[in-house]
Specification:
Blueprint: E1 14-15, H1 18-30, H2 37-42, H3 50-64, E2 70-74, E3 77-81, H4 85-97, E4 101-107, E5 113-115, H5 128-145, H6 155-171, H7 179-189, H8 194-214, H9 217-222, H10 229-257, H11 266-280, E6 287-291, E7 295-297, E8 300-302, E9 307-310, H12 312-318, H13 336-355, E10 356-362, E11 380-385, H14 408-433, H15 442-473
Parallel strand pairs: 1-2
Antiparallel strand pairs: 2-3, 4-5, 4-6, 6-9, 7-8, 10-11
Helix pairs in contact: 1-3, 3-12, 5-6, 5-13, 6-10, 7-8, 8-10, 10-11, 10-13, 11-13, 14-15
């Protein structure tokens, strides 16, 4: 008898050839230059865009390795890269089951690594989802009220409302205006290494302790207790903040360029837009996973110390069908926190879509040729009244010209200048509060809280003054 295949035999992962390594490194480097696609698109040379070239490279690697993960050596490090979304999920699940999956790092387009908050979710009772809908509707009304003269909501105002929604859902009303909590969460998410993350997460957990004692929101309903509660709340709050801040704003833009189909309801279209935003623009487009111990995936042996690179956005673009939206959670398997985050984003987009009509002012989006990246901070989306009573202005609000006499227009111009000064002052205070020097002790955290509270008062005053200017002008 001749043995044709030994199922117990294992082999090393395939290794890319030198030229393939060079091209993959170049593809990683190209992500740092967002304008690089503009000349190709302007000339109609879509095959020369980053997305098209990367897809060709990934397809080549997939064909040369029979679709199996490939070991790549780049200027940014050595990685084992799955070339299929299903393979990536299966490989990570196997590593997780084997106890070999270590820390996950978010890889930014600029090449930086930021440790991801560990998976530790709070259970979500089904009845709690009704409260999420109500909270999302309230915050949607706040977003509509924060519109400028051109019907847009600034990125800063959007982040303020989205962060407040996330805190209300997870921790209750007492945490709604605790902007220091949001800044500590952002600081932990931008840590450069594990040591820095540990220090910043400790400061965040100290801040969370007061809200955990008071109870409220999901923490109160789920009756979360135990030493892991702070970590679970951090994970849940992190995912909700990402979903409401980034994904919901991107989904509004996609909703605006979708064809108006008569069959689906507004809610169905809004939910589909959130799913599409997650699939096209996952908040973590690439994640690196450390392998702590050797394990076997099918017939491939994975060594300890391997970095597994899951380029989620690239794998989604490579897929032949639309596929499922990737989970917001970095750990494979079910995550109630990730499900709650997506549910909250859907509820917010639905509430907005039922009240107003989103219109994308910038950038120009072609539904048949959507960009590979859509940074939410660069989006200008007008929220136009459904009855058409408010239409977006063709350009930004003009700078006030010197007025003759003391007409209402003269005072409106002065008032707009005052609002702009207040907004700039609020921004300077917030930038000062974000300095890492406040992270070291409780006194620093209290000082930062005072700065952020004053910044928030300035923002609210600016909004009131701008409303007064609008009234004077009309």
């Amino acid at each position: 008898m001749t043995v044709l295949h030994d199922p117990t035999e294992s082999r090393e992962p395939a290794t890319a050839r030198p030229l393939e390594n060079v091209l993959f490194g170049a593809a990683l480097a190209a992500q740092r230059i967002p304008w690089i696609d503009a000349p190709a698109r302007a000339l109609g040379l879509t095959p020369l865009t980053r997305e098209s070239l990367t897809r060709q490279l990934m397809s080549h690697l997939k064909g040369s390795t029979s679709g199996r993960p490939v070991r790549l050596h780049t200027p940014f490090g050595a990685y084992l890269a799955p070339l299929d979304a299903d393979d990536a999920a299966d490989l990570l699940a196997r590593a997780h089951d084997a106890g070999a999956l270590g820390r996950a790092d978010h890889l930014t387009p600029e090449g930086r690594r930021h440790p991801v908050a560990p998976h530790a979710a709070v259970p979500v009772p089904p009845a709690f989802l009704r409260d999420v809908h109500a909270l999302a509707a309230q915050e949607a009304a706040h977003l509509i009220a924060a519109r400028h003269a051109d019907a847009t909501v600034s990125w800063e105002d959007w982040c303020t409302v989205a962060g407040r929604l996330a805190r209300r859902v997870v921790l209750g009303e007492a945490a709604a205006e605790d902007t220091l909590l949001g800044d500590l969460l952002a600081a932990a998410g931008s840590a450069e290494d594990a040591h820095e993350y540990t220090e910043r997460a400790a400061a965040l957990h100290r801040r969370l302790a007061r809200h955990l004692r008071d109870g409220g929101g999901l923490v109160d309903v789920a009756e979360a207790t135990g030493e892991e509660t702070a970590a679970a709340v951090e994970h849940t709050l992190d995912l909700l903040t990402q979903a409401t801040t980034h994904t919901a704003r991107q989904a509004l833009a996609l909703l605006a360029v979708q064809p108006a189909l008569p069959a689906p309801s507004v809610r169905e279209r809004a939910e589909a837009a959130v799913d599409e935003a997650l699939r096209r623009y996952p908040p973590r487009a690439a994640t690196s996973y450390e392998v702590l111990a050797p394990f076997r995936w099918h017939d491939v042996s994975i060594e300890a110390g391997t970095d597994v690179l899951c380029a989620t956005a690239w794998l989604n673009a490579l897929a032949e069908g639309p596929g499922a939206a990737p989970s917001l959670c970095a750990v494979p398997g079910e995550c109630e926190a990730a499900d709650l985050a997506v549910f909250t984003a859907r509820a917010l987009v639905t509430a907005l879509a039922e009240a107003v009509e989103p219109v994308v002012l910038a950038p120009r989006l072609d539904p048949d040729d959507l960009p590979t990246s859509l940074p939410p901070a660069t989006l200008s989306v007008a929220l136009v009244a459904a009855d058409g009573s408010a239409t977006p202005a063709p350009s930004a609000e003009p700078a006030p010209a010197p007025a003759q006499g003391r007409t209402p227009a003269h005072y409106a111009a002065l008032t707009r200048q005052s609002a702009h000064s207040l907004e700039e002052h609020a921004q300077r205070l917030a930038e000062c509060a974000r300095d890492s020097g406040w992270n070291h002790d409780a006194v620093g955290e209290r000082s930062r809280m005072l700065l952020l509270a004053h910044a928030e008062r300035c923002r609210r005053a600016a909004a009131d003054v701008r409303n007064a200017a609008r009234w004077l002008a009309h």
